[in-house]
Design brief:
Elements: H1 4-13, H2 24-30, E1 41-44, E2 49-51, E3 59-65, H3 75-93, E4 101-107, H4 115-124, E5 132-136, H5 139-149, E6 154-156, E7 162-164, E8 167-172, E9 176-182, H6 188-198
Parallel strand pairs: 3-4, 4-5
Antiparallel strand pairs: 1-2, 1-5, 3-8, 6-7, 8-9
Helix pairs in contact: 3-6
C-alpha cells in the first residue's frame, strides 16, 4: 500500500489536504521582507473580490488611507498625489513603456470603510477606478496584517481617530519591493521616472 494513502486520510480527518493553499493568515505569518508579497484576498470599491496576485505582472504603487482622515498632510495629500501619478504615468508612458502601473489604496479602517464609502472617496479625488483601486478586505488583514507588512503604524488617538504612518511603496513586477516615499516626499514625477528608468522602451 502506498504510504501516501494514510497521509491523505489523516488530512481528510483534519479538514484539509497536503495541497491546500495557505490561508491569508498563514501567508502573512510566513512572509518575510523582502520576499515577494503573497496572494491575499481583497475587495474593491465596487464590492468585487480580487487577489493581490492580480498585479503580479505590473508595477504597483501601494498606499494606506481611510475615508475619515482629516489630516491634510496624510490621506488627502496621498490621494491627490496618487491621482497625479496616474495622470503623469498616462502621459509619460504612452508609446514608451512595455509594462503598466497599477495603483492600490488600502483602507486602514475596514470597520467603517465599506466599498460604497471607498467608491465615494475615490470619486471625490477624481480617481479613475479602472486604474486606481481603493480596497478593503478581511478586517484583521487590513487593520493589522498588511500595515505590518508595509511597516505602517496606525493607532487611534483620544478621539478614536487613527493616526498613522504616511508612506507610499512601489513594488516592481513580481510584487517585489522597489522603493518607498515617506511623509510628504512622494513626488509623482519621481515615481514615474523611476519606473521608466527600469523599464525598456518599445
Amino acid at each position: 500500500m502506498s504510504r501516501l494513502l494514510p497521509l491523505l486520510a489523516i488530512a481528510a480527518c483534519l479538514g484539509g489536504s497536503p495541497s491546500d493553499p495557505p490561508t491569508w493568515e498563514e501567508a502573512v505569518a510566513g512572509w518575510t521582507w523582502p520576499e515577494p508579497l503573497p496572494d491575499l484576498p481583497l475587495v474593491d470599491a465596487s464590492g468585487r473580490s480580487f487577489s493581490l496576485h492580480r498585479y503580479r505582472e505590473d508595477w504597483l504603487l501601494v498606499a494606506f488611507v481611510f475615508t475619515r482622515c482629516v489630516e491634510g498632510r496624510a490621506c488627502p495629500t496621498t490621494m491627490s498625489r496618487l491621482v497625479a501619478t496616474d495622470e503623469a504615468w498616462s502621459l509619460a508612458a504612452e508609446g514608451r513603456a512595455t509594462t503598466s502601473l497599477s495603483i492600490l489604496a488600502l483602507t486602514l479602517d475596514p470597520d467603517h470603510d465599506t466599498p460604497e464609502r471607498l467608491a465615494a472617496y475615490g470619486a471625490r479625488y477624481g480617481a479613475d477606478p479602472a486604474r486606481i483601486t481603493l480596497a478593503t478586505g478581511p478586517r484583521d488583514l487590513l487593520a493589522t496584517g498588511l500595515p505590518s507588512m508595509f511597516s505602517i503604524l496606525a493607532l487611534p488617538d483620544a478621539d478614536a481617530v487613527l493616526t498613522h504612518t504616511v508612506k507610499v511603496t512601489l513594488l516592481r513586477p513580481g510584487l517585489v519591493y522597489e522603493g518607498e516615499w515617506k511623509d510628504e516626499s512622494f513626488d509623482p514625477q519621481a515615481v514615474v521616472g523611476r519606473i521608466l528608468s527600469e523599464t525598456p522602451g518599445r
